[in-house]
Amino acid sequence: MTEGAVQPRRTRQRSAIASLISATDSFQSAQEIHHLLRSTGEVIGLSTVYRTLQSLAEAGEIDVVINADGESVYRGCGQGRGLHYHLVCRICGHAVEVAADTIDRWVRSIAREHRFSDAVASLTVFGICRACASAT
Fold first, then answer.
1. What domains sit in the chain, N to C, each tagged with a CATH number?
2. Are 56 and 1 a contacting pair, CB within 8 Å?
3. Which of 42, 95, 116, 123 is a Cys-bridge partner for 111, taking CB atoms 3.0 to 4.6 Å apart?
4. In what side-by-side order are the strands of the sheet with 72-76?
5. What is the pLDDT of residues 70-99, one digit of tens each?
6. How would residue 127 be classed by pLDDT, with cut points 50, 70 and 90?
7. What is the sign, positive or negative, of the torsion defined by CA atoms of 91, 132, 50, 53?
């Protein structure tokens, strides 16, 4: 968050969403999060879930990636606010965070080769985790 930026209010809904997300290592869609919250008795609208997820992502409190189907999915950020990438299971959504060092070196190398500057990568690798692979 930038200096002087207004801190988002800590509402009951924001706390419920943040708690739910931090309780799993899988990426979940806004609809899945909404359904899980409602199933626990939380009274919350889907639009509130979307707005809150966007706010949490902008604040760097959660990760958001686009899944293989093109849908935004969300998860608690285990590496803090530092740059990192994800390996995500296409079947169960289990995710592993990967440090950025190797990928960043590769991005800088490719950028230099093609005479680009200030290159930034956005990368999510999809595959099938060990548990899902052994279940098939």
1. 12-135 (1.10.10.10)
2. no
3. 116
4. 28-29, 72-76, 62-66
5. 889 998 876 555 567 888 888 888 888 887
6. very high
7. negative
